[in-house]
Amino acid sequence: MDLFEEADPWNPKKDSDIVPRNEWASNGTPSLSDNINASLETPFRDMTLAGTTRETGLPTVAGNILKSSIWEDSSAANDEDILSERGPFNYGSNLSGNPAQQTTNEDVLSNSEVQEPHELSEDLNDWLKSVRNTYKPLSADIILIEQLPDREGLLFKHTNYVVKHLVPLPDTETSKDRSVIRRYSDFVWLQEVLLKRYPFRLIPELPPKKIGTQNADAVFLERRRRGLTRFINLVMKHPVLSKDDLLLTFLTVPTDLSSWRKQAIYDTTEEFSDKKITSSFTKMWQKEISEQWNEAEATTERSIEQWVKITVFMERYERRVKFMARERLALGSLVQEFSGTIPSLYPVQQGGTILDIKSHLSIIDKHLGSTEELCSERTKEFSTGLVPKFRIFIDVLLSLRGLFERYRLMAGNNIAQLQRRVEINTQKIEGMKDKPDVSGVEYDKIKSVIQRDKKTISEELNRAWLIRECILEEFTVFQETQFLISRAFQEWAKLNSTFAGLSVNQWEKLTDNLSDMPTSNGL
C-alpha cells in the first residue's frame, strides 16, 4: 500500500517533514520592491491571522513551505480501510525558496513546460459554473464610507467614518438612515475575524494606518477612505463573506463597536468546524485543477508587479493633467496682463488694428479658462472614477496571493506520520498473536492508539478535502474578476475619447475665432 503513489503537484514530498497545522512563519522578504510601493504612495499592510501588522510594504512571502500534505478520502473514523488507495492526491506549493528542494517528478507542473489543456468533466464544469454565478464583481457598490470632519480623542486623535449601506441587509435591524459610525480599528477587527473564520477565502487587504502627522494629511486620509470603501465592498460582494453574522453586526450595531466587542461573546471558529466533505465533490475532483493553481501562484507575484506599474502610470497621467490645468490658468492670467500693456506699445493713433488684436487676446484668455475647466473635470474623473477601477484589481490580486500564502502556512497535517505509526503498531499487534507471554494490557493499549490515530487521520483527511473544496470555490470566484480588467480599460478609453473630443472642439473653435485676427495694417 503506497499512499504517496501520486506526486504532489504543489510540493516536493518528504516523509520526514511534518508541519503542524497552526504554524506561522515568514522570511521577512517583501514580495515587491519598496520602489513600486512608494510609487503608489499607499503601502500595503502585512497582516497575520493573529492580527499583527507591519507597515513595511506588501505582505511578505512565507519562508516555511509545507513539505507534506496527504489528500485522501475516508468515510468512517474507525474503518479498517481508511488508508486505502481510493483516489490518493496531494497538493502543496511548488514555489519553495530553495530550488534544490524542488521535485523533478513528471507530474509536477513546470513553469517553463507547455502543458496540453485537459478537459474537465461535465459534473465539474456544472459545479464551477454554479459557483461563478454567485459572484458579480462588476455590480454596483452597496456600501458608502464618508469621513467625518471632526477628529476624536484626547491624546491620540482618530478619524471616524460614516458607514452606510444602500440596500436592506438580511436578518438585521438597522437605523433609519442605515448608517453607523466606525473607526479604522473597527475595520482591522473585522478583517481579523474574517481571517480566523475563513482563512482559505479571498480576504481583501486594508489600506495602511499611519501614525503621527501623516494621520492628519488630507490626501492620505482620502486615500485611506477610498481603500476602506474598496475593502468593505469587496467583502460585501463575496458570496460567503457577505453572509457572515459579525460582518452584519459591523454594519448595523449602532453603538461604539469597541464597547460592543468587550461585552459580547462571539465565535471565531474556523468555518470547517463540524463540517463534512460531500462524496459528490470527491468524485468529481480532477488533478488538473491543482496544476492550474500552480500556474496561478507562479504568476501572481509578477501580475501584481505589472498591474501596480500600470496603475502608477494612470495616476501619473492624472497628475500631469492637473499640472496642465494649472499651467493653462497661469497662461490665461499672463495673456490678460499682457493685453493691458500693448496699447502703450502700439498707440491707437498709429493704427486701429491693435484694438482688434487686444480683442482677440481676450478670446484666447477665455479659451484658456475653458480648457482649464476641462482639464480639472478630466482630473476629477480620473481620480474618482478611473484610478479606483485599476486599484481594486490590485486588491483582488493581493487577496489571491494571501490565500495561497495562508494555505502554505495553515493547511499542514500529520497524516503521513500517523499513517506510519498505524502501520508500525499494526505490525506489533500481529506480532503479539499466539504469544502467551504478551500482556493483555499492552495489547489493548496499542490497539487503542491505532483506533485513536485512525480517527485523527479521518478528521485531518476531512479537513484537507474541505480546504481543497474551499480553495477551488475561491479560485473559481476569482475567475470572474477578469472582467475588472475589461471595465478598467474600457473606462480609460472612454474618458480619453470623450475629453479628447471636447478638447478638439475647443481648439477648433479658437482657430475659427482667430482666423480674422489682423496680420497686416491693411494699407
UniProtKB/TrEMBL annotation:
Residues 11-20 have a biased composition (Basic and acidic residues). GO terms for biological process: plasma membrane tubulation; protein targeting to vacuole; retrograde transport, endosome to Golgi. GO terms for cellular component: cytosol; endosome; membrane; nucleus. InterPro entries: PX_dom, PX_dom_sf, SNX8/Mvp1, SNX8/Mvp1_PX, Snx8_BAR_dom. Residues 1-36, 83-111 are annotated as: Disordered. Residues 139-258 form the PX domain. Keywords: Cytoplasm, Membrane, Protein transport, Transport. The keyword Transport applies. It is found in: Cytoplasm; Membrane. It comes from the Eukaryota. It is a peripheral membrane protein. GO terms for molecular function: identical protein binding; phosphatidylinositol-3-phosphate binding. SMART domains: PX. PROSITE patterns: PX. Its main location: cytoplasm. Belongs to the sorting nexin family. PANTHER family: SORTING NEXIN MVP1. This is Sorting nexin MVP1. It comes from Torulaspora delbrueckii (Yeast). The gene is TDEL0G04310.
